[in-house]
Amino acid sequence: MNLYNEYIKEIEERKGQGLHPKPIDSAELLSEIIAQIKDTNNPNRNECLSFFIYNTLPGTTSAAGKKAYFLKDIILGKEIVNEITPAFALELLSHMKGGTSIEVLLDLALGSDVAIAKQASDVLKTQVYLYDADTARLQEAYTNGNPVAKEILESYAKAEFFTKLPEIAEEIKVVTFIAGEGDISTDLLSPGNQAHSRSDRELHGKCMITPQAQEEIKALQAQHPDKSVMLIAEKGTMGVGSSRMSGVNNVALWTGKQASPYIPFVNIAPIVGGTNGISPIFLTTVDVTGGIGIDLKNWVKKVDGNGTLVRDENGDPILEQAYSVATGTVLTINTKTKKLYNGDQELIDVSRSFTPQKMEFIKAGGSYAIVFGKKIQTFACKVLGIDIPTVFAPSKEVSHAGQGLTAVEKIFNRNAVGTTPGKILHAGSDVRVEVNIVGSQDTTGLMTAQELESMAAKVISPIVDGAYQSGCHTASVWDKKAQANIPKLMKFMNDFGLITARDPKGVYHAMTDVIHKVLNDITIDDWAIIIGGDSHTRMSKGVAFGADSGTVALALATGEASMPIPESVKVTFKGAMKEYMDFRDVVHATQAQMLHKFGGENVFQGRIIEVHIGTLTADQSFTFTDWSAEMKAKASICISEDETLIQSLEIAKGRIQIMIDKGMDNSKQVLKGLIDKANKRIAEIKSGEKPALRPDANAKYYAEVEIDLDQIAEPMIADPDVNNKDVSKRYTHDTIRPLSFYGGDKKVDLGFIGSCMVHKGDMKILAQMLKNIEKQQGKVEFKAPLVVAPPTYNIVDELKAEGDWEVLQKYSGFEFDDNAPKAAARTEYENMLYLERPGCNLCMGNQEKASKGDTVMATSTRLFQGRVVEDTAEKKGESLLSSTPVVVLSTILGRTPSIEEYKQAVEGINLTKFAPSHKLLVG
Question: Within 13 Å and on the Cβ side, how many CA atoms surround 871?
């Protein structure tokens, strides 16, 4: 009983942390537990019964398989356990969500014992997580005349697994809790520096917001036991930033309800709200858990008697309160009238939170059950040879005669499944689409693996063209946490059918490339749909959606995703870039000019940015699409010229071939298949058979923005504005300031060049600037540390071949060594250049950070509080985001440069340039 004794020892250790026993996923451990259950005189028997019944993970974990088989033996009378009757054993099987439990239920339902078959079939009628092997058994039994199989199929055809569920309560009482003022980042709900614990749900739950907030939530629950606590972003958007399922899991853990009494620490049905609504990615995750997300609109822009916006001294609109949601306010959500009330007072219409589809998610306890339920209903009707009865709300199909299609509308129409044949769909339509590329990153990957196990999936869907599991978020430090988690993750995903950054067999060299860069390379079709487990899944070919780990798991398992076709905002350009400007400045200026044009309203939020970029390759234009996450857009699509797209595809082919040469392809030759598809796409473009994706000339947009490049006269910096008197305007990414704002004297404590926002050109800019500075000053001397993390190994190899890496080595004081990776995070930095391993590094904030209270100048994406740098009692840490040249010069000077210093430093350097296309990029 070695494993059991070790488990008991671990339980004692967890008690010291205020934690319950960790849920069991190991068949070996459960075997020892079952042996002690069978031994009626065993002193540990009662404890083992509790572990078996209440603390074993379901789905396709090895423990779930062992549990299902033991329950089968109890039902058949082969084993006698007084505390687990055959009826209770069937109940336990009903909560195990697929995998071996379905195999066992089918064995029983299709077996010779009539009474047991009836009982097992009644349980099967409630299950939806069936895969091809399961449905094939049902179909074969039905074909052979088995009456139980017929009865099960008839139940599935009527969708009784859904119709017999309890109806949603007409009134849902909530008590409010203000999680914070301004945008609530998922970093507050699930901090990046605690990413290692995400798969341990109870442990990870302890990091949500603060211990004080957790106590306040518990006090509200004690005071209002009949109400749900609604977490609110006051004067902001709830769930901005990353896609984290762990954030929603934590909210559900503290405020939701238990999904099953036999599955530990898996809660559902959280209720969240925000003055400005819910971040699109976060809202999708809320849907996964059967929760509710409400756009509260409890603060509105003040207008004068003429209807003109009233602004403050900074030119920002003044807000006035429409109604209060202060912590402790009791509100009523009426799901029938779809209104929010305070007592008898109607506050707002919340019908967008209760569409027919969302009502189904709430009733079923999450969107997965609906997705799988529809599939099993379709299967049953096909086998029975009958029409599909209308049970689920029909998908909303919006079609406007004579109206053209935006780029995203074209992509969704091409990839849609189950829609009315021949019908052209526009924005607002609810669509199920096939997914081409899927990405899983390493800090959410363990949760994705858990989701795959819980939905009983064993192999990647054949519909998916390619999928990749990264190792970038844990690249900086190969510590004990990473060593414990990552090899296990890589093996699981490799076995499942993904291309993995680390080889479980240890044959090819570990590749810790930033996931978004790899996905951008393996996307070889501008008509593709990409789903990735990170909010920066924003490819510059096709349309890519960052998603929670559950949606990623669903895409891997089924090859599909469901969502409404989003509205689009068209972005075009005029004028010309100044010689000393970098494309990163254009990206920031786009946000600033858009906000100015629309009076502070972010028209990008929740929509597709269709950017007519034309002349930039996918590597460079990714800087724009990547930043669209910070613009709060749903996604972004680049409209390219034919020649530019061909060039991008050739670059992608070359990099995929390098992956093949390293030995990363699998037995199905997925990577080779991607090269073949790229060649096919290039041939289509060259022949004119199918030019690069373009919208129709008569497409309809929510808004159109033309960016004036002539107005961009100096570098543009995204500022967290940490000392703004209006707390709601801190850490928003919306404060974009020109370099001159800082007067050339703002102290910079550390610089960072890296993350998904940079490309090969940025590394070459760095090398050129260092050479220039040495030429001008006779030496290169840093007055602040400069941390450099190239996004990919391919880029490092290309820089070595072109001589730039040698330049960086010359000026560096540290260079990564894959043969001796760091085992601990760096806590102090010297004033020198650090050449770090490819990966996320400081941008992620889960392993290494700047010193507390530092002012950081970075090329990365995140400026949220505590992400890259934490506060001290005396000074707030701040992460200012800018172009590579600004970062380099800031570390050389130890302060922000003046515009004159900047111009001199970049003179003669090949910055990332952009010129608007002179071609009409419409179809």
Answer: 10
Q: Are strands 499-500 and 608-614 parallel, antiparallel or unpaired?
A: unpaired
Listing DSSP states for 25-50 in one string gives --HHHHHHHHHHHH-TT-TTHHHHHH
Main-chain phi, psi angles of 516, to 5 degrees: -65, -35
3-state secondary structure 150-173: HHHHHHHHCCHHHHCCCCCCCEEE
Instruction: Provide the pLDDT for residue 844.
Output: 76
Sign of CA dihedral 343, 345, 350, 351: positive
Q: What is the DSSP string of 309-356?
A: BPB-TTSPBPEEESS---TT-EEEEETTTTEEEETTEEEEE-GGGG-H
- Whole-angstrom distance, CA of residue 169 vs CA of residue 617: 52
CA distance from start to end of the chain: 69
CA dihedral 460, 463, 465, 468 (to 10 degrees): -30
The H or E element that residue 247 is part of is helix 245-255
Give the SS3 label for residue 878. Answer: strand
Q: What is the pLDDT of residue 274?
A: 96
3-state SS of the chain: helix, strand, coil percent to 5? 40, 15, 45
Residue 334 burial by CB count (10 A; 0-12/13-18/19+): exposed, middle or buried? middle
pLDDT tens per residue, range 561-606: 988 999 999 999 999 999 999 999 999 999 999 999 998 899 999 9
pTM: 0.85
What is the chain's alpha carbon radius of gyration, rounded to the nearest angstrom? Answer: 28
CB atoms closer than 10 angstroms to residue 393 = 14
CA 126, CA 98: separation in Å to the nearest integer? 11
Predicted confidence at residue 619, as pLDDT, reads: 86
Four-CA torsion 697, 700, 701, 705, nearest 10 degrees: 40
Supply the DSSP string of 691-741, one letter for each residue: -S----TTB--SEEEEEEGGG--S-EEE---TT-SSGGGSS-S--EEEGGG
What confidence score (pLDDT) does residue 646 get? 97
Helices marked H in 711-853: 760-777, 793-802, 804-811
pLDDT digit string (tens) for 348-362? Answer: 999 999 999 999 999
Phi, psi angles (nearest 5°) of residue 633: -75, 155
Tokens 């680390």 found at: 502
Return all residues near 823 (Cβ < 8 A) that are at least 6 apart: 477, 478, 479
| Cα distance between residue 511 and residue 93, in whole Å | 41
Q: What pLDDT band is residue 455 in, cutting at 50, 70 and 90? A: confident
Q: Which residues contact 706 (CB under 8 A, 6 or more apart)?
A: 571, 572, 573, 574
Cα(227)–Cα(222) distance, rounded to whole angstroms?
Answer: 10
Percentage of the chain beyond pLDDT 70 is 100
φ, ψ (nearest 5 deg) of residue 802 = -100, 0
> Residues 458-488: pLDDT tens digits?
899 999 999 999 998 888 888 888 888 899 9
Backbone φ, ψ for residue 177 (5° rounding)? -140, 115
3-state secondary structure 418-447: CCCCCCCCCCCCEEEEECCEEEECHHHHHH
Q: Which alpha helices (H) appear in 523-582, and where do they start and end?
A: 549-558
Distance (Å, rounded) from C-alpha 760 to C-alpha 394? 47
Q: What is the pLDDT of residue 243?
A: 58
Angle at 873 between CA 868 and CA 875, to 5 degrees: 60
Residues whose CB is less than 8 angstroms from the CB of residue 745 and which lie 6 or more positions away in sequence, other chains included: 895, 896
Averaged pLDDT score across all residues of the chain:
93
Instruction: Copy the structure tokens of residue 587.
Output: 């990206």
pLDDT value of residue 567? 97
Q: What percent of the chain has pLDDT over 90?
A: 77
Give CA 226 to chain center in angstroms.
33
Tokens linked to 192: 């990046």
Tokens of 439: 């990405």
